[in-house]
Amino acid sequence: MxxxxxxxxxxKNSELALTYAYNxxxxxxxxxxxxxxxxxxxxxxxxxxxxxxxxxxxxxxxIKKHTANLSAFCNRVLKNDSSILNIDLEAIENKSVVKGxxxxxxxxxxxxxxxxxxxxxxxxxxxxxxxxxxxxEKASCPVLAIPSDxxxxxxxxxxxxxxxxxxxxxxxxxxxxxxxxxxxxxxxVHISPLDEHIGKSHKKELEDKLHKYIDYPHLKLDILYAxxxxxxxxxxYQNSNAxxxxxxxxxxxxxxxxxxxxxxxxxxxxxGKIPLLxxxxxxxxxxxx
Length: 289
Known about the structure:
Layout: E1 3-7, H1 12-28, E2 31-38, H2 58-78, E3 87-93, H3 97-108, E4 112-117, H4 130-138, E5 143-147, E6 157-161, H5 166-182, E7 185-192, H6 200-213, E8 219-225, H7 229-240, E9 244-249, H8 256-271, E10 276-280
Parallel strand pairs: 1-2, 1-4, 2-3, 4-5, 6-7, 6-9, 7-8, 9-10
Antiparallel strand pairs: 5-10
């Protein structure tokens, strides 16, 4: 059984991400593990004038407290008892939120990490914004970031932004595992600068290659030409009614045509109005080509 790891900081924004993660796990028949990463308070944080037990069990008491908070959070957001919903809850102590989540995902061999983005929280262990980007850069499994204004949990159309690297095939193949339970369409789209024309025969070769290595019937390829990549692809998302955007995060290789794509990736991440699924290219080698 696949495992989906959802990480929360209890912020308002993370509520929608929990609903999304739960609906996704139900559709995929995957196990959902809900975690919260915390750090123990410093000595100064615990100073009190009240009498305290001589040997307080700080670790046990803190974990119990955070586990209870997780349970209350899930019950309130999902409007049901988390034990009935078969959700595993775990409070994790780690000075680094990113490391805590990644270590847990590795231990569980998680299929996917789900988190919210652009949340507002005063908690030290906030996992939104820049931390979500760190997860994308470091996690061995894909990371699904849910923006606060994303409301649809049903997935009908997925857009995968491709730069035609070999790692894309491994990422798209894994993407089909999310698409299949929804019977969703996957549109692979490439934005090419106006001065870099891709002929019909080359496009046909790419289409044949996709269908040869990716066993999924609802898969198509579109190539768009524009110097304003962000505006073009935003219009493409709107016209295709995309419910989910997926893409491959790449290391800086210093190649000119890849710079065009990497800039697009970062700008789309900042756009943040549609759920974004990111695959780390370093974990998707040559896909049996």
